[in-house]
Amino acid sequence: MSLLVTAFLDHAREHAPDRQIVDYVDGVCVRRSTYREQDARIRRVAGALVALGVRPGDRVATLAGNHHRHLELYLAVPLAGAVLHTVNLRLDPAEIAYVVDHAEDSVLFLDAALRPAAAPARAARPGMRVVVLDGEPEPGELAYEDLVASGDPLEGPPPRDGDDLAALCYTTGTTGAPKGVGYSHRALYLHTMAAGLADGHALSRRDRVVHLVAMFHANAWGVPLAAFMVGADQVLPGPHPRIADVATIVERERATYLGMVPTLAVDLVEHVRRTGTDLSSLRALVLGGSTPSRELIRAITEDLGVPAFQGWGMTETSPMATFSAPEPDATPEERIEQVRTQGRLLPGLRWRLVDEDGAVVPHDGVSRGELWLRGPWVASSYYRGDRPEAFTDGWLHTGDVATIDPDGRLRVVDRVKDLIKSGGEWISSLALEAALLEAPGVADVAVVAVPHERWQERPVAVVVPAGEGLDPEAVLGALAGRVPRWWCPDRVEVVDALPRTSVGKVDKRALRGALRAGEQKEVL
Amino acid sequence: MSLLVTAFLDHAREHAPDRQIVDYVDGVCVRRSTYREQDARIRRVAGALVALGVRPGDRVATLAGNHHRHLELYLAVPLAGAVLHTVNLRLDPAEIAYVVDHAEDSVLFLDAALRPAAAPARAARPGMRVVVLDGEPEPGELAYEDLVASGDPLEGPPPRDGDDLAALCYTTGTTGAPKGVGYSHRALYLHTMAAGLADGHALSRRDRVVHLVAMFHANAWGVPLAAFMVGADQVLPGPHPRIADVATIVERERATYLGMVPTLAVDLVEHVRRTGTDLSSLRALVLGGSTPSRELIRAITEDLGVPAFQGWGMTETSPMATFSAPEPDATPEERIEQVRTQGRLLPGLRWRLVDEDGAVVPHDGVSRGELWLRGPWVASSYYRGDRPEAFTDGWLHTGDVATIDPDGRLRVVDRVKDLIKSGGEWISSLALEAALLEAPGVADVAVVAVPHERWQERPVAVVVPAGEGLDPEAVLGALAGRVPRWWCPDRVEVVDALPRTSVGKVDKRALRGALRAGEQKEVL
């Protein structure tokens, strides 16, 4: 019996027909429907896709925000036997064209507001059908609601196997072209089961989840499929929700589960302090994307009264790979430290740390190595075989440098490519950034390597000040006693903002380039 | 990447090396070891099995109680590529010989005390190697600890596939010969994931489980493998633990999870009332095997202060199929009623109710049908193809008659073969028994059909009195207003004890036979 993600649609319809899918726009509820109603719409869309000529294995793209129609496609596309390709709407139009062309998408579903971003992709694939999700279709486009209205509910889906792809997502690495990660039905099925484990995200029938994580981003952390599986309510915040909207949604919907990046969580804490919004319904605020600061974890736990957790993973791991929860007997201070680690490996996955020579290093909390992962929901190749050097015998090289404690807690130290090699020793840019962030007057910081004649590389700190008159010497002075003296950056550059990639990560490649260009200019 | 249950051994060793496996005998702790130590022993036993000539797919039988060596075999046998056949030690020796011969077991591991039970099986399979788990080997036997000492740890297990069998268990139906249920690695892997779901048994790293359910019985409800997966402590109560021993173990070990049949739970409640044993560490007492009474659920919840749940399943479902937890907002009375249902279907499984004509009946809480199940850990055939009529297109006919509420709660009404057809209408023997159990002076009861010239069948109640002087008329009088008048049994037979099968179920076939024999005698 094949493991198919569409089983979770059946489960939601049969076991939670009256649970809700709720849409918000700008902090206002605009729609409520039930799994019973959503199931009928999803089957119609699947039927319409088959009628449009979509064949098993075809790729169907979305370029859309977080709303119920996007959620419907999460299941309608795999139900039709096709592969859901969620396109990152923050890519620039040329990159969107690249991934749509690389995936050879046969249909594109898009929000009307994103037509400009899709123009080059449409030019590159003139045979691609385009369906606009909202508003009036332009010439050559189909309207989504017409598909829903005209589609015959798909009762007998095409035969599919657990190894068939159900979804596809491109990584937006800061080096090289985007690489596709294909997710088989089986991988997503098992990933969804893992999302319900009591030791992990523990998604359950009692939950009301808010999808703040972008739905184009690595299956939205896997939370939508998990909500179908367990019959949880799902709340979609619509396009560009402000932090005030998020707080309003949690308060009005009595939401229980919310995932977000630390940067947004800082804003949320600040907003709640100012407004007193009631977030007490949350049983879990899960942080992911980068390591949260101690102060953020403390503020969420103590000031908001909401249990804070950290999840870690990447596009290549579907994405949940570890989960960090405090031990039941931890002191408040230990809890913060434990949630700051990337946490424990989810059951079913394997890991190892591998040094520069390819040797496995011990899990002693000190030895560092590149983290390799393997398991039923970890990619063992990229789509179309791109970049095979990222895999060895089915093990994914994550590109993250990490330690693992003897009791199994992961601590990501740096990206392999962001480590700074100075005088034959490694400097962790992440650790240096964490120390610099605690210096007074520093709002944001990135540390990158610049070439150095004697030491090979030396660190340079690029700092965004919190206010006026930041003193670079004072910033460096604040490092004393916090990091080894030789880690101290050679200089501090003050900038208004850090360059970021389309998924909000600091673009260190751009920074390194700018710094080198700056140096050359000085030389000239 | 194949889904293999032995992945959970790797997970326990790497992520919970210091968590404990604890052995008790007669309520006294006799051994503590760690997953690190157990892993080494399990690999040695697997190596010894391969050295003994066990080949992938061979069946390896156990006839043993609940102790660490039996637990080791749960993983050592699949690690060696073989199939663990746990033999029911309560079968009579001829039945043991039947299943060992049917499975063609090549090795038998047995407790020394069970040698007499194994004698006919050994005679039937003279080539079978016999390993005694405890005490001195007799001529022709090997000693388990010699295997552990001599075995080279198996580092490179034979290649196995997720579809290969990992375990085998025979059902002890009250009709016909025992039927084998083979469990693939994949089925047990997914069943183990399901055991960790927050909406189900929710086994987690925080747990200390006690294995009171016999380890020969349907993978001991799947709890041992789940404990390996999550890194929970496991406590083994040894042979024939008395209820006082169980209470002592829970109190001393601060156990968190305990599963048992309602009959034992009644004794446990009584024991705690008398002794004041502290069971407050339990986060879950899961009842399974038959529907618990309201009073039992109330007593566990209120008098013991322990959350009560019900799990339901059968050998053919690995065995967990449903889990019954109260809704978060239920009143105390509603909680009892909700836990009395068989509960909600675990994600990944499908169900339907089918009437006598093969038509699917609605889930309206009233319509009855035979429960059919299907899913990755539900058998779709018996071992060697026995009794193919129990399956239709991959659906298992459970033999249970049930209703399903509109919100998805299962209520098992009766076994198909125990329903009583009277005047063209069905009488539920289970519902009648539940009503009779509430009559004063009734300790135990079974209702069976006897042939009737006019009504086809009529119910007869066989009652075990709680004390002296039970009045059959008073028993029937107590039914007034509780069941339809025409359900009232034609007569009440008073007996000292009910006949039971090897797994403790009332043997209704034997009862029906005895009643008919009695009638014939009266006629003669």
Automatic annotation (TrEMBL), chains A, B:
The residues covered by the AMP-binding enzyme C-terminal domain are 432-505
Name the Gene3D superfamilies on file: 3.30.300.30, N-terminal domain of ligase-like
Mind telling me what this protein is named? Fatty acid--CoA ligase
User: Do you know which SUPFAM superfamilies this protein is assigned to?
Assistant: Acetyl-CoA synthetase-like
The record, for InterPro entries, names:
AMP-bd_C, AMP-bd_C_sf, AMP-binding_CS, AMP-dep_synth/lig_dom, ANL_N_sf, ATP-dep_AMP-bd_enzyme
PANTHER family attached to this UniProt entry: LONG-CHAIN-FATTY-ACID--COA LIGASE, MEDIUM-CHAIN-FATTY-ACID--COA LIGASE
Judging by the UniProt lineage, the source's domain of life is Bacteria
